[in-house]
Amino acid sequence: MGGRAGQSRGAGWGRREVTGPRRFLSRCAGSVLWHFRPGSCLTSPAAAALRPPARRTTTPTMPCEGTRLRFPPCPTARTPFPLVPCAGMPGRRHLPRVGARMTLAAGCCQAESGPRCGGLRQRRPRRPAGEPSRPSPLPRAWAPLEAPVGVWAPLAFVTLLSFASRFYRLSEPPHVCWDETHFGKMGSYYINRTFFFDVHPPLGKMLIGLAGYLSGYNGTFPFQKPGDRYEHHNYIGMRGFCAFLGSCLVPFAYLTVLEMSKSLYAALLAASILIFDTGCITLSQYILLDPILMFFLMGAVLSMVKCNSCADRPFSASWWFWLSLTGINLAGAIGVKFVGLFVVLLVGLNTVYDLWELLGDLSLSLVTLGKHLLARVFCLILLPLALYTAQFAVHFAVLNKSGPGDGFFSSAFQSRLIGNNLHNVSVPEHLAYGSVITMKNLRMAGGYLHSHWHLYPEGVGARQQQVTAYLHKDLNNLWVIKKHDSNTADHLDPSYSVEFVRHGDVIRLEHKETSRNLHSHQHEAPMTRKHFQVTGYGINGTGDANDFWRIEVVGRKAGKRIKVLRSQIRLTHLATGCILGSSGKTLPKWGWEQVEVTCTPYVKETPNALWNVEDHINPKLPNISLDVLKPSFPEILLESHMVMIRGNSGLKPKENEVTSKPWHWPINYQGLRFSGVNETDYRVYLLGNPVVWWLNLVTIGLYLLMATCAIVAMKRGVQLTAEFKELSEVLLHSGGKIMLGWLLHYLPFFMMGRVLYFHHYFPAMLFSSMLTGITWDTLLKFCAGRLSCSMGRRVYTYGTLALMLLIVYSFYLFHPLSYGMVGPMASDPNSPMAGLRWLESWEF
Amino acid sequence: MLGFLKQPVVVTAEINVNLVALTVMGLVNRLWALSYPRAVVFDEVYYGQFVSLYMKRIFFVDDSGPPFGHMLLAFGGYLGGFDGNFLWNRIGAEYNMNVPIWSLRLLPALTGALCVPLAYQILVELHFSHCAAFGAALLILFENSLITQSRLMLLESVLIFFILLAILSYLKFYNLQKCSPFTAGWWFWLLLTGVACSCAVGVKYMGLFTYMLLLAIAGVHSWHLIGDQTLSNVSVLCHLLARGLALVVVPVAMYLFFFYVHLTLLYRSGPHDQIMTSAFQASLEGGLARITHGQPLEVAYGSQITLRNVLGKPMPCWLHSHKSTYPIRYENGRGSSHQQQVTCYPFKDVNNWWIVKDPGMQQLVVSNPPRPVRHGHIVQLVHGITTRYLNTHDVAAPLSPHSQEISCYIDYNISMPAQNLWRVEIVNRELDTDVWKTILFEVRFVHVNTSAVLKLSGASLPEWGYRQLEIIGEKLSKGYHQSMLWNVEEHRYGKSQEQKEREVELHSPTQADISKNLSFMARFTELQWKILTLKNEDTEHKYSSSPLDWITMDTNIAYWFHPISGAQIHLIGNVLTWASANVATLVYVCLFLWYLLRRRRKICDIPEDAWRLWVSAGGLCVGGWAVNYLPFFMMEKTLFLYHYLPALTFQILLIPVVLQHLTDHLCRSQLPKNAFSALMVAWFSSIYLVYRTFSPLTYGEPTLSAAELRALRWKDSWDILIRKH
Question: Which residues are in the MIR domain (chain A) (predicted)?
Fold first, then answer.
């Protein structure tokens, strides 16, 4: 490893010598200028090119030019971190390999990463098509690894802080907190290999399960409700895993901002916001999906930004690396929650923009363009799709035992699950009169034909017994097949010979529990007004002619027998000609929120109107082991998605329920109680650090103002100095992307009908924090640029320092929110938090 | 002085015969036999009731949209001398002689007819040939669905008219921009754009989509203006301010004005009072105002009050108690305190009266002078008829086991002490020392011992609770919700010491001396909020459809059916036009993308001018179609085919645009051009034929036989009513 690194480093140095002038130029054009490089008070690329020796000087008080942007040299003592004279590129060679005497080398860090993956500006001069990519692409992929301490020290520092803040008091409280009850439980299901149903894709819970498994948790803790003590069960592994991923967010944000703005202070500001935000800490410390989701999300953003920076060297190894890493992270993000789609959208828009730029570049041939397009299709569409599918493959392979989620799925699906009554099923194969059956709707996530003792309420069709579709297995799902014209007793008589039901027969279905017949008539169905109502009618099986149904099998000829499970059955009402179906709409409270069953007069071949026989009990027939239809993998995949989507849209808030509204979130209006209610409890309250959040909020306004000014100024053709152009470039391009990310992760929630929670905002909050870093950095630079040399430097340094101190101090005030409070509530004047309840809606 | 006489007075009039002819054709086509059928057709039953209410000046709330459209219809009724006496209860009911059906239907028909010349003019302003413009107008003229919709007392044609007017005036304005900004004509068209937009939004909220589109287009144009460096900064600023004034300020002001007129016209209380707050109701004549008129404003210790829940969902109700107790055990086996029930009751009742009592004193009457109750005071609430105290304790509520039960305390001598102290928190107070006022102030009752808040859960109790609504005590943990807020509605100062006298007092009506007036803005905000949030139960309609059905017109709506003759009116479009419009859209999008990609590679297939024309016309037509169509995919309300008509209008305008582009740029030589023209003639005649074929269903006459009707059922999914003989 060491040898390898040394080798590649050598190559790097060598190459740098060769491309010296160009790189030098580009570095000056990049915002390297903004790093206090003693003696490098350069203002324009031209100036930089003209006066290279100035860069070598290390005199701390080099005078600045008057008219140009006076960006001052910085004596190391005045900066928050001791800055090392960055000796320009040629001088770098003489840097000690281990920077013992320097902790942070702000300028050098740029010098390192800047030219390697140039900013947006640097890819403008594209290579002509067909020119071979530059040599030795391999080391570039791992470029950061060879970097000297200068790059790594601040990164290591923020990473350390991040890990420390997330892992501090990780095991507290030692009981189930908030949604741990769900995700912990689902982790256990994976360990126990029990099938369950959840509205989110499986990756997050699989990873939790894996972490638990590896850390020695045996899956026996029931996770029944929040507040249950863990006792001897090992839960630290799972929490630690989530905390680990949550801690990674900070370095990711740091690197992203650094890459985008080329400014160390911006990166540090963004990182410190995330480190010291109580909300992010709390959300990372428990067994939840959010840290996992945000990990992949930030990973995707980081690799997208890195990939953009490598745009001047397309098809190089690092380019491929970051591009495919973006795809991998995207797959991860959607694999955890569907909210990951927003980051997919962000990356998608970025890619479209990229391709559009490439298309406009006439120096590229169509073939090259095609390659670009294909590379992106492969890395950003096919690769994530494959990975996403693979997750499901693992999910289905692991969960092979019957569990609480069975009823949501079709008969075929259930036959895969060990312990389900359809697994290796042994039933009479052909339907006969007198059989007791259950009928399952073929629609995705369709229910069993169901009835119960309750009547339709007044005003909803005829006041007869309800017939619904029900997703759970239940005795009320049982029906008896009878001949339409004969009486009940016949079939039970042992002397009576078995008669099979055949395609095209007219039958009657009697509900076993209530002995009413399946009935339909020309009344409006309760929800789907175009259809007819289906009821249970008659006493002890005696009804009228509206109880007769013709049973038909799809794609069969008349007279054939009807098979259990295999046959797709259609029931046609004899009197009205309508077809029994399930509309998929949920009935109101009177119908126990089960699914509506109707008789549709429109003859359409939809799965809504098709049923299959699932259970089949007939003592007179021999049970035969059936080779049940094993569904193919694509079918399972499609089905589970339909079920998830239905589940998600079913999470509607109830009337008079207090729910969190999206507008609450950015203003930190109200938190979420993770643990503890009373004074004596150990209380954890998910609430953002208000100073940080309000700073973020203000920054969004500030950003819009600055961006508008910049863009209008450019449009009006105001003559800007090169520095301001540079600044507005960062502001509009990098800031714009981040802003887009924030919008994409925030606005869609306004249109969602489902129940929303405060924690849904956190992905958007990550973007908002990065934006804060970039915006304030730009603002301070702008102010500094207006002032005189030394003043400007002071404003910039102290401004950043003040912001960071503010953040740290507010964290000191609010840290009990995440690390737990005991004692009187904040509304009590004796509480240590008494003065901190700034909004009445906070409840800690 | 008399110099002007030296010159002859010359009036030069330019008359565009095309335009006149189109207008006349439109009028004939839309106004023909307008008062047939003399029966309620489809949604006339819905809009008619509002017209009647306008005539009677009775207040109503319609959640389907803002009031301007209803007002226009009512204006028609006013012109015809309608007195509002008609029972709008069923489709197909014959109109009385007092219903001036012709003038009620006139306005929609006129606006529908004017859409034809508007379409012509729009294409002319887009710099397309008069031939193309004439074609567009003809297509609108022969579109059966638009005809049906405009011949009845419905709002879509009015909406489409205002949308087209807004587009046209913006185009006029934009064309004037280049040569003569800030002239009278320029201002006229700019302001007209704003006014037309606000009218469109005022008729139906759907108008908002087109308004947004116009704002976006104006934004793009302004952006070009900013980039125009020949203009000085000041003039750019003036341009922007003028646009801001005309396109934002004027529409908002107009919108407020509609509501102002609406609220001024409707000053009587009526059937929808209940959903408004007490304060709003008190501002209407009759109704609550009659009851509360003159009651004391400030609640004092000893006051007798009724408490209304502010949320009013699922229905408006008042805090109520009665002699019955909670059952010892519920159906599911849980136990209760077996104390007296406290519910929320949706009707006025003597059992809704409560007395505010000072915990420190025994008396239940108001002292002299009255001691007012202020924010933060602790009170007891005594039920007037049963004299029991409002109480809550750590017992699960009947239907919401996570919350506390609210009861009127009965002392069973078991270890369950009374916990009947409540802190009054005025939510919309201005000062912390505010006195609790009736009607205006919304109050939260926080239980002193458990800090639970008195709340309406929205569930209705089973039989033992007489199906009244459940009241619970919710731990104050989940923020504010209107269901936790109460306001005093009826109020009097209690005078009787004895229970018997008090009962008599409670039964007597309240006395009066002050009235309350809400400001217009307060009333507007409340009404607007109610319109936006009020949700009817979205039960599916027989003729409702999904947006996907609309493109291909897989659905129709039967509007009216004569029970004897079998004549019928359907909302059914000109199939050929719809299909052509779809094809045109597809062709446009494909060609646009093709040009766009090629231009990016610096290959210009068409000249720059043609490209600009192509983009602007397409942006308007395809954009208009998209913004008026796509949002419906995200809507959860019941949708009908007529929601597609605005989008369809835009799509129809696109047909001639695409056709002219094809002839101009793709048919290079003369022969294909001739062939193309011939094709056009054939195509236009078939459109006319289709229009003729379906016109019996459009106009409702002549009556067709069953066989003819069956022949008209071109699609299986169409629901054409055929009588069984």
Answer: 428-484, 498-554, 559-616
